[in-house]
Design brief:
alpha/beta, 2 domains
Amino acid sequence: MSMAGPDDHPTPDRRVPVLRASDAEREQIADVLRTAAGEGRLTVDELDERLDAAYAAVDHQDLERLVADVVVPADRRDHVLAGARADAVRRSEGRVPVRAGDDGDRWLVAIMGGVTRKGHWRLGRQCHAINVMGGSDLDLCDVELADRDVELNVYSVMGGSEIRIPDHMNVKISDFALMGGNEAKIGDPTPDPGGPVVHIRLISLMGGSTVVRGRKLSRKERKAKKLAERDEQRRNHLGY
């Protein structure tokens, strides 16, 4: 009869439990995915799928897998969550990035067609967006400015623009419309006193442009937001 050695006994499972993801971390990873899509690393369909998975993620490993192939450089992959948190803090506390120079977009022309700018792009010191029987979709939420004071002049004839600005961007808006209309939904025009300023001039003839503060939500995000608002209303109604 053989004697059982020390290696014959089962070893207790000493694996450390994986830390579960919080709502704030899911939102931070969603921001990383939006940035990756703006840089062309993800298609629109891939972004929608990964956002859906991000909001349904249970633990940190689930979140890390979603961004492992879109975060650059590669050695940051083990620190995705920490980097996402730092980026979120910089966006909330920092300012619109400015890199002085003569480059950047100066002309955006849409004639019986459309022009789109989103993700990371550079706005020149003076940029003219011209819409003639067409339109432009200009997302400034991740834009870099060529100076602390830049001008964005939007001229629309039987057309228009939708311009989105980030929460922390200072803007000064002037507009003129003939047989058309312009609209600005921005709240406080100077949320960052002393920060850079974008001067937006809207001139419309039989057309119109809109300036909106805040990022544009995807279809999945709008659905998730609506469900969250519905749950909040239900909790308030029940007195939770």
